[in-house]
Amino acid sequence: MKKHGSVLMLWAGSTFYKVLGVLALMMAAEIGYFFAARSKSYSYFDELSGSVLPLLFLAAFLGISALLTLTGAFGSKSRYTMARLRIGEDTAVIWQAVYMSACYLLLWMV
User: Fold this and answer.
1) From the CB of residue 109, how many other CB atoms can be counted at a distance below 10 Å?
2) Of 15, 21, 56, whose CA–CA distance to 36 is shortest?
3) How far apart, in whole angstroms, are the C-alpha atoms of residue 83 and residue 40?
4) Residues with Cβ < 8 Å from 99, sequence gap 6 or more?
5) Cα 16 to Cα 25: distance, rounded to the nearest angstrom
6) How far is residue 12's CA from residue 48's CA, in Å, rounded to a whole number?
7) What is the pTM of this model?
8) In this predicted model, what pLDDT tens digit does every residue of 39-81 receive, in sequence order?
């Protein structure tokens, strides 16, 4: 199990705080938009019909997708670590998919 945890931490260690930063920026922009919409009209739900919230989500989605795509793409450090762990490539891909799914689930929850 130690090998599997190492593979998961290899993926999470390089992008976790960056993903949290993108999510924090999205949350700050959403909070700012809600307060701006609330101060403009009596009911800010009317303001949300043509809102920029889907665009904020799209920007965060693209930012997280770019971060996750570039993980380990350039450089041999992750490749060297994977070679030393002697774990199957299919298992590594499964752990990468689990981590990426967790990041997208976290984006959806935010």
Assistant:
1) 7
2) 56
3) 58
4) 8, 11, 12
5) 14
6) 35
7) 0.76
8) 666 555 555 566 778 888 999 999 999 988 887 655 556 666 6
Helix, strand, coil in percent for the chain, rounding step 5: 85, 0, 15
Distance CA 54, CA 66 (A): 18
Cα 53 from Cα 18, distance rounded (Å): 21
Distance (Å) of CA 99 to CA 23, 42, 64, 85: 16, 42, 12, 18
Give the angle 100-77-17 at the CA atoms, nearest 5°.
Answer: 40
- Does residue 11 contact residue 99 with C-beta atoms inside 8 Å? yes
Interatomic CA distance for residues 44 and 91, integer angstroms: 48
